[in-house]
Amino acid sequence: MGDIRHEANAELPPLEVPDVMPPHAHGWWAKYVFSQDAKYIAVQYACTALAIGLVALVLSWLMRLQLGFPGVFDFITPEAYYQFITMHGMIMVIYLLTAIFLGGFGNYLIPLMVGARDMVFPFVNMLSYWIYLLAVLVLVASFFVPGGPTGAGWTLYPPQAILSGTPGGQQAGIVLMLVSLILFIIGFTMGGLNYVVTVLQARTRGMTMMRLPLTIWGIFTATVMALLAFPALFVACVMMLFDRLLGTSFFMPMLVEMGEKLSYGGGSPIAFQHLFWFFGHPEVYIVALPAFGIVSDLIAVHARKNIFGYRMMVWAIVIIGALSFVVWAHHMYVSGMHPWFGYFFATTTLIIAVPTAIKVYNWVLTLWRGDIHLTLPMLFALAFIVTFVNGGLTGLFLGNVVVDVPLSDTMFVVAHFHMVMGVAPIMVIFGAIYHWYPKITGRMLNEAMGQVHFWVTFLGAYAIFFPMHYVGLVGVPRRYYELGEPAFISTPVGGLNAFISVAALIVGAAQILFLFNLGWSLRHGRDAGSNPWRATSLEWQTPDTPPRHGNWGESLPLVYRWAYDYSVPGAAEDFIAQNDPVTPEPPGGRL
Amino acid sequence: MMIALVLALVVIASVAFHLLSPWWWTPIASNWDYIDNTLIITFWITGVVFAAVVLFMAYCVFRFRHQEGRKADFNPENKRLEIWLTVATALGVAAMLLPGLFVWKQFVTVPDTATEVEVVGQQWSWSFRLPGQDGRLGTSDPQWMNLDNPLGVNPHDPTGTDDVIVEGGELYLPVNRPVKMSLRSIDVLHNFYVPEFRAKMDMVPGMVTFFWFEPTRTGEFEVLCAELCGTGHGFMRGYVQVVEQEEYDEWLQEQLTFAEYANAVPVEDQPTRLAERY
Ligand code: HEM
Ligand SMILES: [Cu+2]
Ligand SMILES: [Cu+2]
Question: Which domain of life is it from (chain A) (predicted)?
């Protein structure tokens, strides 16, 4: 097993960064508002992300009302509908999912799980949050400016994004969106550098890379990817801002808008799409890899079993991360790019399916002969696997260039990406919150509310998005304010759409219950103790719960083993903490 | 316990919905049944994998759920099993990719016999241009656009004078004749999409994109725009009438050529208002 477990008496390597206590904050403001403690920053990130996520959820209700009951709600005009989808999509992908996985879980878990006292650059880490908050506020401001937010679709494709036929195109909406994205990227880069350097340099003694919990591998790889991918979006946003404000023509060819010839000329709309998706596809994995990592740990802990094929899992994460930089144009099969690209991008896209499938196999094989505790985190992990497998498999339709031709830009695509990067990662976020809330607050979340939340969310989300594939297969295009009853539809989809909309309202309501639970359990939750799940990884071995500033009291923990010593033969308990030096002698000799 | 049952039910319900629900693609009206076939292969392979994985999971949850005294196995890795699974997956993926690439080659290889038809998109309507007697379309560029020349046909290109211009969103095509759709846009991205033809392609200002197909049955087919193009996106519709050759020829006779267009259509009847800068 090589690196995974040391002999108990082996020499531990020295620390790479000296063990210094991060400076203590003085005063209320420095402690609770402008905190430089990664744990506070994590909670700030997560609360902000959930708050803006709630806006996106309400927008999804409004869109579903329009799609399910067209013509009933007068205030949903076509302009408003396109503004809703744009803000909903962008908020969900960037301001909720990216922020909560990296800024939220990354900040909380990285220092604790690698055995560090904090992030290596606490001040920059704090700045990262405040710039993120500013980005969110700029985004929210666009709801209140004349013309409202942009309605260009979350892909912001020029030329329409900056022309008058699109809501916010010639007003402030698009400008605020671009500025907000630019701010987000600046803020993220500050946090991202921290996460990477902390994982590489500030691991405690004995915590080799191959002993890191998969959670850290997922967040680490995703952060490296984000640091490489976001600059493409940054450049695209800056150039589009120039096109919009200064009249440059990076993405604007000569064109005649509503009968009037504009002064643009020579630019390429497709160049924007390449830049956008060079960021956009890795973005899918920036959200997915932390989810992959976290869910691996949830499954191992709650099935009391080591994750199956740890090394394969690490390599799969790294390979998926690398490959996801050469598949971007599978979003552009019908964009008019040279058709020969289709061969290349279809091939690379389907190759990614192999390491992804391996991860799925290893999750379910971890369940095999486990001791499965059906706790809330485990339930959400199972729901993740179902929705992720479902959404991953429909990816094979859309990745396979020619099959994508009839399906692209239909509701099939909407169903696919919601399943794979909407519902599936959100299941992991919920599972992770139920799992780590006890460490963050010292109290358990209420189980009964959690059960209701789980069943409604899992079955409801499946009921929303599974049938939606067939709406797309029928031929219904996405981003349609109102389709009517065109002749190509032999069985009307109206009833199905109404059903989906009702399911969406119910699922949304269940999220309110969840948010209530978060607040309620803060006071009334059962006392959690320091290690309620009897888990091995370091964050559960802190001297205090919730962990204090500096995390580890007097001295850093020493690490003697990987994070997956569950149910080790011969051991007294069914888990051995990573910092426990004693390896039991199994009945049949050493493994 | 309950979750094991529910997982199994999710599989059963999904398969039942797939097989029994009335929602399925609209009957095809082009030569691209190859695409439909590839789609069917993909449905089968992915459906089997989905059912297998989720049912296996359901079984594990049922069989290995926590009970008093249960202890999990300790087996970190199993090289052989992992290699087997990898190889099997790679084969499954290849079984979908290879037919897919094969059909893609056909999709992007326009037959020599195809006649060319130009589709021009603008916010939010469709126009068309068909080659005249000479069988060729003249060149075009936005710089030539004006009231008499809404599609920007190059007035100095003699091949363009006999081109047939159709504004107003109804295109006739002869059945069983391959056509190459040359796609242009004069403002933003659009996408020419007819569900029955299975094919679609973006229209990009500043460049000409294309796809080809062969209509295989007569009838009226609705054109939808499938690329977000602003507020009117959902209302940007048109029609393709696939007809027998004679009917097509008759229709073509009635249309105006580029040369006639400027003189024939009074300014107030023209669908777009164009700046008089050129
Ligand atoms: C209950 C949960 C949700 C519901 C009911 C919902 C519903 C919708 C609807 C109705 C659309 C517009 C479809 C169209 O007309 O094209 C949409 C678009 C979108 N959604 Fe969601 N959504 C949900 C959650 C999420 C989540 C968690 C994500 C995170 C990835 C997400 C990402 C997106 C994106 C990226 C778009 C595309 C926006 C665009 O076309 O520009 N959604 N969603
Ligand atoms: Cu259009
Ligand atoms: Cu459109």
Answer: Bacteria
